[in-house]
Amino acid sequence: MTLGINIVEPSNAETALVTNPGMYQLDIILKKGHNLAIRDRGGTSDPYVKFKIGGKEVFRSKTINKNLNPVWDEKVSLLVDSLQEPLYVKVFDYDFGLQDDFMGSAYLYLESLEHQRNLDVTLDLVDPQYPDHDLGTLDLAVTLSPKEGDFREATMLLRRSWKRSNKLHSSMRLSDVHRKAQLWRGIVSISLIEACDLQPMDANGFSDPYVKFRLGHQKYKSKTIPKTLNPQWREQFDFHLYEEQGGFIDITVWDKDAGKKDDFMGRCLIDLSPLSKEHTHKLDVPLEEGEGMLVLLVTLTGAAAVSISDLSVNILDDPHERHQILQRYSVLRSFHNLKDVGMVQVKVIRAERLMAADVTGKSDPFCVVELSNDRLQTHTVYKNLNPEWNKVFTFNVKDIHSVLEVTVYDEDRDRSADFLGKVAIPLLNIQNGERKAYALKSKELTGPTKGVIFLEIDVIFNAVKAGLRTLIPIEQKYIEDEPRVSKQLLLQNFNRVRRCVLLLINAGCYINSCFEWHSPQRSICAFLLFVLVVWNFELYMIPLALLLPLAWNYILVASGKDTRQDVQAMEDLLEDEDEDYDKDDKDPERKGFINKLYAIQDVCISVQNALDEVASYGERIKNTFNWTVPFLSWLAIVALCVATVLIYYIPLRYIVLAWGVNKFTKKLRDPYNIDNNELLDFLSRVPSDIQVVQYRELKLDLSHSPNKRKKNNPG
Question: Taking every annotated instance into account, which residue ranges of this chain make up the domain C2 (predicted)?
Fold first, then answer.
């Protein structure tokens, strides 16, 4: 049960306590919803409900995933000091990243309720902007009771809340409800080891199982293990524990089916309350509503690794606290708590010249700071394009390669927040203690948008822990964006692949030019280097050779030369594509559907040809060994026998040396010789599977034979 207090401003508190004859207790049971609005692509929604009184949020329900007829059965008791203010009920569709979609709202007028009587209430949800839309209904059970005898207790509660809110200016601090919803108090690490004796769901007597985990709004999904009833995953997931969430992790097992809905294989529920902290528990959990058992390792770690404070209160400004943090991440403690890599402190100072998102020419901006799965936000500064937040956020660093994302939104009443701008800052690029202005970027982070934000960031970490953390899998996001089909994205990815392929082709052409003696000086140097390396080759030379380009590029960077022209090329490419995208939006007639179709067609043809080439060579290798063409298979046997004898009797060093000398001198011996690759020439003679089908003779139908027709018709 949650206790909600309608907190009033200090100036109004005295008046409320004097004029109101008593307090009221409002008991509400949020039962269920019917035919709610569709907000997700899959034809469903993830609804949750908010209650507000006097403009202040007093209750938020849990989120029911993928359901238009959700059942909550949640009870809340509220103390209200006035029946003049109605209960404002709002329903939202949960989308990670503050893009929650509005699903409807309704008012419950408290003056109309009978006292001390349980009433069943059905609220019709409406959208003020689209009043004709049917958004479904909510079922509530409501009881309103006078609290004459408890007036003194309620008065004390109000005065206590007034004192708390008066410590700092109310517009400059997060509410307790808001703060509690963001900060987490511990980590639950779950290692999904294996499952035993699962139920067969496919016709072949096997299943393709994967597992879903859910703790509140946090969700994870394991990889799919094909064709097995005893899968082994060996995957790890980390959840955050919040005070208001129950200590239960919902686990479901599913069978992956291509082209149709996945089959449910069972579920289990893990109660975290009896598990001791700082200890790994091995759990063998049987599946309910199914067959089999899951084997898990669960570790609870109690730590407040994120925090919010005002600019006047931050730990790194205290020399004693800073010294303790530096000691905690010193080299001497490199092997103590390897998951605690470091900490980052972000001061969100202010923003300037933001985009006007409202019709009044102003915005209601607030700022969201994200690091991996940790997400905190500032208060909202209303009707201001140059807001000042002056907030300090502290995060625990689990991976020094994480990217700090700072996003500015415009708050909209009853609608999802509008995007104003964003910056992404890799932790390794941060200059400690530097107050810096960052130009805001677009949502895709490919181009600028209006406004700048002023941040001051400090990162303290242990280099040894950070290096070890680099060698383990990266932390997954709770919820990833759904993949979408995009012409710009398709062209962008195609151009990226083409640039990588062209780089390899250019390197091959450069090597081939040494064989072709286009530059005699270069070819002589390459030949001498080849002979020297092959004659003296040892295995340690492989990592040594990889060190050389790293050292060379480091020298260039240290001397002030930019060796990363490819980054600038990619930036230009993305800007060009953004311009094309804007032109498509502004002039749809000139860039019509046919032009877009042709652009996608060109990319698809190139991808299609590349896939055909790769598949054909794979099939030709297979057909060489399965005697599709006996002559070529016999030829392969002879070549492999000769190669076996040569390698057995002649050291590999001499064979490679002879091959290189042959390649280098071939052009000198025969200037008009056409360069070739003997292995690819051999494989080009082997038919692919498609060619095998094309060359196969059809069985002759004797009923249509010419000789038979002559016999049947002698005259």
Answer: 9-123, 164-285, 319-440
